[in-house]
Amino acid sequence: MLPSIVSSLWLQENLNNPDLIILDASQITNQAGKKSEFENVKIKGARHFDLKNTFSDANSEFPNTLPSQEDFEKEARKLGIKNSSIIVIYDNLGIYTSPRVWWMFKAMGHEAVAILDGGLPDWIEQGFETEQKSNVTIESGNFEANFQPDLVVDYSFVLSNIKKENSLLIDARSAGRFNDTEPDPRKGLKSGHIENSINIPFESVLENGKFKPIAALNAVFEVLQNENRPLVFSCGSGITACIVMLAAEMVLHNKKAVYDGSWTEWAERQNLKE
To answer: Strand 168-171 relative to strand 231-234: parallel, antiparallel, unpaired?
Structure first.
């Protein structure tokens, strides 16, 4: 079975697998203000996964919302993805958007999916082959999506859970945004957090562009060692929540889901304006 995280060496050794598809989930901009020095370079043969546009619900009023099963399936087929595909996702920041895409494929029922630990920076550091980004013609795939509703929760679920506390909500934003001591990067949106949630900033599970070792992740999640409830992950708009979710997947056995609307939806629906 494919692990959720693979190394650059593993990917290099498996490049000739006919079922392998490499997806580049890099974005031009991000809310964290992170910059990459590898803007126009990709792993040789990688296909562009357009998270912001093609693979977000165009009808949603909130950013990065998971598209419908039908739309995801249609666009995944355009990338040549098949039911037999072994998918490895990376981004040019090390680890930023790739876990979101990993979660999306999991939510659409595809199990053979992993992220590249360290992403494009590590691949280049290892001296493996890259090429300039360009448009390529791709033969359509036969991918069939099978939506897994247990991996996604919505506003109503989070609202009712504040009183029921059947699940624990984990917020992956910075401590400053969580505690309302620094402004939200989205104009007009107040900082703060959902009642009864806890804060595990996504930066706390990463080190030098990779996930921390298991021992270090156990220390990060030590507060949850005796927590048996399902875990729900949130952030600003559902991207960095998936980083913490994937880190938790390595050390915790709880059921896990993502609050797709995250703080952007919550704050706007609660009318938490500045």
So the answer is: parallel
How many CB atoms neighbour CB 177 within 10 A? 23
The CATH superfamily holding the domain 150-269 is Rhodanese-like domain (3.40.250.10)
Verify whether residue 242 is a known catalytic residue: no
Comma-separated ranges of CATH 3.40.250.10 domains in the chain: 5-147, 150-269
Does domain 5-147 fall under CATH 3.40.250.10? My reply is yes
C-alpha separations of 86 from 1, 11, 53, 113, 175 in Å: 10, 11, 23, 6, 36
Residue tagged active-site, from 153, 200, 235, 257: 235
User: Over the stretch 16-52, which tens digit does the pLDDT of each residue have?
Assistant: 999 999 999 998 755 655 666 777 899 999 999 999 9
pLDDT (mean) for 206-225: 96
Instruction: List, in sequence order, every residue forming a beta bridge with 243; answer none if it has no partner.
Output: none
- CA dist 234 and 199 (Å) reads 10
CB 62 within 8 A of CB 267: no
Cα separation, 169 vs 166, in Å, equals 10
Enter the tokens of residue 231.
């875990």
Rounded Cα distance, 122 and 152, in Å: 31
Three-class DSSP category at 125: helix
Residue 239 vs residues 30, 49, 80, 109, 231: alpha-carbon distances, Å: 10, 14, 24, 19, 16
**Are residues 171 and 177 in contact, defined by beta-carbon separation less than 8 angstroms?**
no
Provide the token pair at 44. Answer: 């040789």
pTM for the model stands at 0.95
